[in-house]
Amino acid sequence: MGTWTSVSDIHRLPQSVYRDDVMSRQTVGRWCSMFNEGRQSVEDEERFVACDWGDWITQPTAPILPRQTFTFFPH
């Protein structure tokens, strides 16, 4: 059986190298939970979204940044 490492310890190592340019401690905690529940890869899982785009806003009101989350609202 492997040794247990705290989320804070896992977060501290990359933070000591990359300073502020590292994921938050909360994000590290979510990743730890996913791996404890059986996840085996850091690669994004395929997602399927089906919708009728006819009733949706087609032009963003602001630039969409990499890794930014956003929500579509029908008008």
TrEMBL record:
This is Mos1 transposase HTH domain-containing protein. It comes from Araneus ventricosus.
